[in-house]
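Design job #97: recover the sequence.
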């Protein structure tokens, strides 16, 4: 047996309905924002200072395992979205504490950071400039071998040659690979009039640390008579910049 229940609109409080509606809209907006927001990208000193505030910082190296084995930030663990045991690695982290992520640039680290935010992590930080900024600013790191080039040898090369173009990068860096054909063109055009020195992170982390000038890969530095003619963060129009600098 069915009973017809009549409800008068006077039984509803318009103010309550309005407030409830606004609360629902706010909640849905907050959920959407938390799923789509990006983690802050911090410059090296801010990133490092925040790590030092943590008794046991949760640092993630989002590069590949081969890269991690060669060098990494002290205390870091290694995984990214393509890691086979990704879920187990995430489960070992404490969501209530800050997480610090880096890679070569910001690709893999930013992707991982966004995924962690979606899964309940509230304080996720990405290092601007990645491992280049960390080692390039002289912060503590692990390397499985000594650098092939010392700072003294580097300075001697600069002193012994009238013009020197230094390319600093990593063989795992996509942007760094684009520099190589440009260097070959420059080498062909200038021959013995220009000394080209290629320094990669995998073989020479300590010289990168000692220079204390690298913030990103690739970094290009042109010296004329021992002084810096230009320093470029990123490839840009390298050939043109070299031509202009050496024309004066």
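Job complete. Output follows.
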């Amino acid at each position: 047996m069915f009973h017809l229940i009549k409800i008068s609109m006077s039984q509803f409080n318009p103010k309550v309905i309005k407030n409830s509606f606004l609360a629902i809209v706010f909640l849905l907006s907050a959920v959407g924002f938390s799923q789509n927001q990006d983690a802050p990208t911090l410059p090296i000193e801010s990133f490092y200072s925040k790590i030092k505030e943590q008794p046991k910082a949760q640092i993630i190296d989002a590069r590949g395992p081969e890269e991690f084995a060669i060098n990494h930030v002290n205390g870091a663990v290694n995984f990214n979205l393509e890691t086979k045991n990704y879920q187990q690695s995430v489960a070992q982290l404490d969501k209530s504490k800050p997480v610090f992520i880096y890679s070569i640039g910001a690709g893999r680290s930013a992707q991982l950071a966004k995924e962690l935010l979606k899964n309940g992590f509230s304080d996720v930080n990405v290092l601007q400039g990645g491992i280049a900024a960390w080692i390039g600013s002289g912060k503590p790191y692990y390397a499985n071998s000594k650098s092939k080039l010392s700072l003294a040898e580097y300075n001697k090369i600069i002193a012994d040659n009238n013009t020197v173009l230094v390319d600093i990068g990593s063989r795992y860096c996509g942007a760094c690979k684009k520099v190589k054909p440009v260097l070959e063109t420059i080498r062909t055009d200038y021959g013995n009039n220009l000394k080209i020195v290629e320094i990669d992170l995998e073989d020479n982390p300590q010289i990168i640390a000692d220079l204390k000038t690298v913030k990103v890969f690739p970094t290009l530095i042109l010296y004329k008579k021992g002084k810096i003619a230009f320093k470029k963060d990123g490839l840009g129009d390298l050939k043109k910049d070299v031509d202009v600098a050496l024309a004066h």
